[in-house]
């Protein structure tokens, strides 16, 4: 490779020897692991050329969008509480993620500079890789707007998101705080209209933290409004072995209307991992505990408590061992969610430049859960208060509407 790089100022894909060498390289890499495909592209930083070997991970169709079954989530950029890194460290982290197949990112208008960071990064990528990237962000309306929600106003909000994302906007996900104000129906109508008439602005529309009742209402409204020609493709909600609320009502709504869930909180702030197996309950005031972990620990207590949670971790560890290799607890926890019919993708929280579990997260695609695995998991889940949590907390997203987000 060094000889190839030194033979010209920059790479020339028209060069026969260069192409032959690359084909041989790809052939050897494919022999190492045939589970994933590989694409190639050059990216340039100053005078330095880097060859990106981009893994192809499984995708699923959401309308016209092909979305990877794992997305990187950039919520952690909303606060330094998750750690900080330099721009160069974040750039390097994103390059590693893309090379491993994480070509789709989830962010929001209130995640700090996440949109700008990812948008700038995407613009720096060569065309071959850029075309595979997916920018998924959110427009979150936490208070009723101070003006009528006209199509022009809605379009201006979408353009804000697109501009901050570097000119790319594949999936815009919409959150609306006040259910009592039905303006969200008109806004979603305008969003669908924009996605149908201006694909260069936004390609698809999704929802964020809408419960089953309102998701059904929105999908029914759009079906009537657009005669089945316009619809949302997804709803992003919390879903895990601990928080199973989507399966009680929302799953049936998804099946009825042909939409899928993008899930966050699937790893419960990393509590569903080998790190916590056999450990005492955490000190929530410790510096090492993140804001997300404080939230998810409260959910674990509602679900059944730390002792039952340890039973679950033991069961997951045994399942991981049975599948061999380097499968871990987090892989099994994510697989349980990914195998749900209503789920399209799991969002993996990412601390850019601080830490990375990218390689281990990909192992979720190397096994499937057996009937015996499900029986072992259900033996623990049957002892939990999962359904009581649904009634106590309310349906998906209710926790954000009972108090300020």
Q: Can you characterise this structure?
A:
By secondary structure, the chain is an alpha/beta fold. It has one domain: NADP-dependent oxidoreductase domain (TIM Barrel, Alpha-Beta Barrel), CATH 3.20.20.100. 42% of the residues lie in helices and 17% in strands. The protein has 16 helices and twelve strands. The strands form three sheets. The protein has an eight-stranded parallel β-barrel, surrounded by four helices. It has a two-stranded antiparallel sheet with strand order 1-2. Strand 5, helix 3 and strand 6 (104-106) form a beta-alpha-beta unit. Helix 8 (212-226) packs parallel to helix 9 (250-257), helix 11 crosses helix 12 (329-338) and helix 11 runs antiparallel to helix 14 (371-381). The longest helix is centred in the last third of the chain and has 18 residues, at 306-323.
Name the descriptors.
42% helix, 405 residues, globular, alpha/beta, TIM Barrel, two-stranded antiparallel sheet, 16 helices, Aldo/keto reductase, NAD(P)_OxRdtase_dom_sf, NADP_OxRdtase_dom, eight-stranded parallel β-barrel
């Amino acid at each position: 490779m060094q000889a190839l790089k030194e033979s010209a100022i920059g790479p020339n894909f028209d060069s026969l020897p260069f192409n032959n060498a690359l084909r041989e390289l790809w052939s050897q890499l494919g022999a190492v692991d045939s589970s994933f495909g590989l694409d190639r592209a050059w990216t340039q930083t100053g005078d330095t050329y880097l060859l990106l070997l981009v893994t192809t991970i499984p995708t699923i169709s959401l309308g016209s969008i092909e979305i990877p079954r794992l997305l990187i989530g950039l919520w952690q950029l909303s606060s330094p509480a998750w750690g900080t890194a330099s721009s160069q460290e974040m750039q390097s982290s994103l390059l590693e993620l893309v090379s491993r197949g994480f070509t789709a990112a989830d962010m929001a208008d209130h995640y700090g500079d996440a949109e700008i960071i990812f948008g700038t990064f995407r613009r720096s990528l060569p065309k071959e890789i850029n075309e595979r990237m997916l920018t998924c962000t959110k427009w979150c309306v936490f208070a009723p707007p101070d003006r009528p929600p006209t199509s022009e106003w809605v379009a201006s909000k979408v353009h804000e998101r697109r501009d901050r994302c570097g000119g790319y906007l594949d999936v815009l996900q919409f959150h609306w705080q006040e259910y009592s104000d039905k303006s969200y129906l008109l806004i979603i109508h305008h969003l669908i209209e924009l996605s149908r008439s201006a694909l260069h602005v936004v390609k698809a529309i999704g929802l964020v933290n809408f419960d089953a009742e309102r998701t059904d209402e929105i999908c029914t409204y759009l079906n009537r409004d657009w005669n089945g020609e316009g619809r949302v493709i997804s709803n992003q909600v919390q879903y895990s072995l601990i928080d199973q609320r989507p399966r009680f009502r929302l799953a049936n709504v998804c099946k009825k209307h042909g939409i899928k869930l993008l899930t966050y909180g699937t790893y419960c702030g990393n509590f569903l991992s080998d790190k916590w197996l056999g450990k005492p309950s955490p000190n929530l005031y410790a510096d090492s505990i993140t804001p997300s972990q404080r939230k998810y620990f409260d959910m674990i207590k509602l679900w059944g408590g730390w002792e039952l949670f340890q039973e679950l971790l033991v069961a997951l560890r045994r399942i991981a061992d049975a599948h061999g290799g380097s499968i871990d607890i987090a892989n099994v926890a994510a697989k349980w969610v990914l195998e749900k019919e209503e789920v399209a993708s799991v969002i993996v929280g990412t601390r850019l430049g601080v830490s990375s579990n990218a390689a281990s997260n990909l192992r979720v695609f190397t096994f499937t859960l057996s009937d015996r695995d499900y029986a072992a998991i259900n033996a623990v889940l049957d002892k939990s208060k999962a359904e009581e949590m649904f009634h106590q907390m309310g349906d998906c997203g209710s926790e954000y509407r009972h108090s300020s987000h």
